[in-house]
Write a structure and sequence with these properties.
The protein has 16 helices and four strands.
Length: 413
């Protein structure tokens, strides 16, 4: 007869096996539904149409001119142009039928791809099928990625693509490690989210550290660097054509709210922006829902997502496990250093990513920290514990509750 601990272990395994597919199905359904029903902020879709007509400026107003950068009577989009390039074939086909192709039509595919790549990375790290699926669910919905995954506005669309490319680069680094593939991937990241492209420093450092001839190392560095340099040159030409300055992407001219403009007046990048960014990244909490504006008592849903951002520990408590792991090997230290180097310009930046879920700018470096977490957890602790899985599931449900809370308030109000 099986002992009580064995029975309890089998019971937990059955519950875990049942909860995982249900959770994945539920969250992916929410992702698909919201992406195909949300409209607005379709700047990349409109920019793709402009590109198809040989124009770098918006040919029509994408809802409003907010966040665009005017110059000589034209309005330009300061964000990296690669997401618009991705949409060009879809807009071309849709245009032949007189239709408009919304960003949300294709964003679920990119979200699913991100989860699949994370799953593959976990499998390469040595996890079983179920644990790898939990880790895919964990990044997709138990981090700030949830906010960009389910809402297809232009800024979020850009970050989904950046995460996809970065995770693809991580997968390449831990498998075939082809320098030219890494170069192409990070060149595309550069044309999407420039800060995330600093992740190439991890790849370069790993290549320099391996025992090989300097001729081979130099060849690898050239293979990585050449696509990035070509993309950098193309972006400089793109900037010069729009603003007459190869180093001006348009952020200084961007149409933004008055309070944000006052912050920008202190400098697009400045040490004075660090306290605010650190506060949002590490300390900012969800918003309480009082019964009345001046009341202390709360009413349902009690707390909702703070659109100004929320702490990493609120949206992504799984990263607390990093604090209990050892990070003494070279790769661990390089991943920490890479994440820090990406975080520096984000913390110096005047904006904090308003209208967001969590601190979404952190998604530029979270893929590296997430790989560090799953890698070192596997090496030091083995399979995921029931506690880790509970944190992932609980955090995902908590995030969805916070996210949905604002909808509940709108319906009720």
């Amino acid at each position: 007869m099986a002992s009580d601990p064995q029975k309890r272990g089998r019971a937990r395994a059955l519950v875990s096996s049942a909860l995982l597919p249900l959770s994945l199905a539920g969250f992916l359904t929410v992702t698909l539904w919201l992406n195909t029903h949300i409209r607005g902020e379709e700047q990349f879709a409109y920019l793709a149409q402009s590109f198809l007509h040989g124009d770098l400026a918006f040919q029509q107003m994408p809802g409003s001119w907010g966040d665009t950068s005017p110059n000589h009577g034209q309005h330009y989009w300061p964000l990296g142009p690669f997401p618009a390039v991705v949409l060009m074939p879809f807009e071309l086909v849709a245009g032949t039928f007189g239709a408009f192709f919304y960003q949300g039509y294709v964003q679920p595919l990119f979200v699913f791809t991100v989860l699949f790549i994370v799953y593959c990375i976990a499998r390469v790290a040595g996890y079983g099928v179920e644990d790898a699926a939990y880790l895919a669910l964990g990044f997709g919905f138990a981090t700030a990625f949830l906010g960009v995954a389910v809402w297809p506005w232009a800024w979020y669309f850009s970050q989904v693509i950046a995460c996809l490319l970065v995770f693809a680069a991580i997968a390449e680094m831990i498998t075939r490690r082809r320098p030219w593939v890494l170069g192409v991937l990070f060149a595309l990241v550069l044309a999407t989210r420039a800060t995330a492209a600093l992740g190439v420093l991890w790849c370069i450092a790993e290549i320099l550290w391996i025992r090989d001839t300097w001729r081979k190392k130099l060849g690898s560095l050239v293979a990585i660097g050449l696509p990035i340099l070509v993309m950098a040159a193309l972006l400089m030409i793109y900037n010069h054509a729009r603003f007459g300055d190869p180093f001006d992407p348009g952020y200084a001219e961007q149409i933004i709210p008055l309070n944000t403009a006052e912050n920008r007046a202190l400098g697009i990048f400045s040490l004075r922006h660090i306290p605010r960014n650190l506060y949002v990244l590490l300390l900012q909490a969800p918003n309480p829902v009082p019964r009345r504006p001046s009341a202390l008592a709360l009413t349902f849903p009690y707390v909702v997502a703070n659109p100004a951002g929320m702490s990493l520990w609120v949206t992504s408590p799984c990263f607390l496990y990093l604090l209990g792991l050892r990070h003494r090997d070279r790769t661990s230290r390089l991943l920490w250093l890479t994440s820090f180097l990406i975080a520096v310009p984000l913390l110096l930046y005047y904006g904090v990513g308003g209208r967001q879920f969590g601190y979404r700018y952190a998604l530029d470096f979270l893929p590296f920290l997430y790989y560090l977490l799953l890698r070192n957890y596997r090496q030091q602790r083995g399979d995921l514990t029931a506690g880790f899985k509970a944190v992932v599931l609980g955090s995902a449900v908590w995030n969805l509750y916070l996210f949905a809370g604002n909808f509940i308030l709108k319906v009720g109000g």
